[in-house]
Amino acid sequence: MSTAQVIVLADAAATERIGAALAQALTARPGTIVYLRGDLGAGKTTLARGWLRALGVSGPIRSPTYTLIEPYRCNERDVLHMDLYRLQDPDELDALGLDDYPPRQSDWLVEWPERGAGRLPAADLELNLQVFEQKRKLEIVTCAEIAALLAPALLSFFEEMSGLDIKH
After folding, report:
1. Are 20 and 49 in contact (CB under 8 A)?
2. Where are the alpha helices (H) located in the chain, listed in sequence order?
3. Tens of pLDDT along 9-37?
């Protein structure tokens, strides 16, 4: 059974902060598969940047739009940031070297997962972003196990953010 929660994020900084809060909540659970969905410019890479910063990445974090995959080593764990927008066929995933990063041993942040439909592992966490009145609306869809892990971090995030509109 999955649960969904919708959050309105005021700006890019709030988008990065929610990415960081989600990553911190899941640090004890390696091998998390995250689907990042949304139109161009919705904030997928911004959220991924916050996630990666929270895991300790201090160098540049670029969108993998042209490389398709950017691997990071974060505190003894591998994290892949993928942008599948340019894939024409899910079979193109075979050429990306994903076998070097097994999905239950590495975290995968996957932008445009629908381009890899049928070839990607199921998501543990789906983050759906939409531009909404010059803000961003984030829908968080999780299974019960992940929802329980995220609950304290999200509550803390909500308490820290002023003017955040939360909807269930």
Report:
1. no
2. 12-25, 44-54, 144-160
3. 989 999 999 999 999 888 878 789 999 99
Bridging pattern class, strands 33-37 and 125-132: parallel
Element (H, E) at 81: strand 77-83
Domains and CATH numbers, the chain: 2-167 (3.40.50.300)
Question: Given strand 135-143, what is the order of strands in its sheet?
Answer: 69-74, 77-83, 106-111, 33-37, 125-132, 135-143, 2-9, 165-167
CA distance 60 to 36: 20
Q: How many C-beta atoms lie closer than 10 Å to residue 148's C-beta?
A: 12
Predicted confidence (pLDDT) per residue in 33-52, tens digit: 999 999 998 999 999 999 99
The angle, 0 to 180 degrees and rounded to 10, between the axes of the packed helices 144-160 and 12-25 is: 130
